[in-house]
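Rotation project, supervised by the postdoc (A.L.). Task for the rotation student: set up a whole-complex structure prediction and record inputs and outputs verbatim in this book. Inputs entered:
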Amino acid sequence: MRILLVEDDPLVSDAIVRGLATAGYVVDAVGDAESVQGRLDTTHYDLAIVDLGLPGEDGFTLVRRLRRDGSSLPLLIVTARDGLDDRVNALDLGADDYLVKPFALPELAARCRALIRRATAATANEMVVGRLRIDLAGRRAIDDTGRVLELTRREWSILECLAHHSGRVVSKERLIQAIVSWDEEISGNAIEVHVSRLRAKLGDAATVRGIRGLGYRLDDA
Amino acid sequence: MTESPKLKRAPSIRGRLFGYLLLPLAALMSLAFWADHRTFVTPMYDTFDRALSRAAIAIAAQVHQGNDGTLYVEGPDPGTLHMHPPSGAHLGPPPPPDGDITDRHDSSLRFEPDNRPLAWMRLYPGARETLLYRVSLPDGHTIAGDDGLPIADGHESDNVGYENATYKDVYLRVATYHTSVGDTPVLVTVGENVHHRDIVVRRLDSIIGVSDGIQLLLVLVLTLFGITVALRPINKLREQIAKQEPQSLQPLMLEPVPGEVRPLVESLNTMLMTVRDATLAQQHFLTNAAHQLRTPLTGLKAQLEVLADETQDTAQQERITRLQGSVDRLAHTANQLLALARAEPSSHGPSDFVSIQIDALVGAVIGSMLDRALARGIDLGAECEPLQVHGVYWLLHELLINLLDNAIRHTPDGGNITIRCGRQNGMPYLEVEDSGPGIAHAERERVRERFYRAAGSDGQSSGLGLAIVEEIARSHRAHFKILDALEGTGARMRIEFPSHG
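Outputs recorded:
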């Protein structure tokens, strides 16, 4: 997995390169937006991390330019600004996620992992959560021992929905929408039953965590 | 927002105009009244005097000189007089004489209604008063009539003198006609109670008074109407200001403003522009400060993490961990200070206020804090009803982050934290309840102060969290209340939003 980092502060840049290297990523760092295009033309990247406050052309302009040129490269914005406008702007322009400085390296690594996972899922039809491999095309989940989990149609839909948003809380309402067709009705209690059965089948390959009053979150372990 | 102290009742322009007009107008009216009074009283008194003199002349005509040279007054027999009033009937019967004078015993000295000479009834038409008379010689000898009646000394070209006099406690107007019968000079004096003319004057005065009063009243009503119409542009200006959002710094329109008020509006606009520039400068500064503070902190933090991973030496790792703790605390304080500066009203404009789905915000904030809570085994959950509030998204986000951060700090491992939102009695609220030790009543005001740290709080707290909450609540016209938990010992931090927003 190769990541392009656009960050002008050498201390931050150096730390991210090293930190993500320990997480298994190869990171190429550039200090300004103008050097990005040359890199993209010669190398394939799975993700770009873009600082908004760049000298010269700023991060916003870069994101807008990349999306206008039709690039589908996943973009993670890191910035010191935390105003709502900046956030909305960046996401509206086509960034995929947003992280406010100062952040912890493990958090950055987790965000990178999630973004890459989502992007790969769209092309390779496969996701990896914890020790679970989720085959979206074959509609099956395989644990690290190679065993195919036997899931009902509804359990599969719940797992698929949670996996698409892994690491984030998914509301019960959203899960209900994911598993029922128009003519069916299902209660929140029924969801709980399905989730508890799914948990039992996942074992310790991945964890479905219940968040009181909010929903569920799929965690790595 | 704090309520401004009650101002002393300011003098209104309308009141001042009205006051300044009312006093001179009233003075003017009094002057006019006095002038009117003078104008009619003098000719009226002259008329009364002339009528009195005619009565004297009429009596003089009845004074004759006998053959022996003595003077006598012809008997007051109406029948012998041929000077009948042409239309005596319309005069009506003479009214009963004035009480004061009727009481007098010496009735022979008076013209009673029945013996009043018709001649001077005609000369003095409409006379409602009895007259006193005296025919005397220049030496004071009285020939007929009331011999105590004072004689008016001075006399003018028509041989009649007038005087005010008091006779037997009655105020009289006397007229003395200087004439001669044969070759004997005779003074004929007629006295009339002034009461009569006073009544007439009073009646006229009251008519003039009422009419002047009505005029004054009409002028005042018109003035009031005029003032109201003239002040209408100022009222419009006031409405224009009132319609603006409190944080809006839009310049006021000069369009409907009259020339006199225009400089005021212009200086107000200059001030608004200055404030707006200052606000923009502040926002610009905050953006820069955030960048300048956070970027090196990120580098420092990330470098320490990398260093900790790369170091095998446990002693060094421990040092690095302590460094990391300090950097984290520094980062936290920097964030809090920036948040506090941003929560100040000058840091956000009216366009930042939008409709915010609070229950969705709760979900987002819980999502971002969940790992911290889970690491401590805290059951973090929500009991939210759908709720919309008018506010600044990132400020409310910051508010909830701080409430939750505070709750997590004070909740023991394995405790509970519940975020609730909804409406109670129609009033929107957002609250965070924890199962920590709670906050003593005595501390509840102080914990909102900047940099105040309650006894027993951990070394990581910046003492700014609840100050930020207070500031943000205030900028949303919401109330920040610290209450007891519904169950157990913990604290319940509650934000009550205004019900209209």
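Student's summary: The first helix of chain A runs from residue 10 to 22.
Supervisor addendum: The CA atoms of residues 43 and 57 of chain A lie 21 Å apart.
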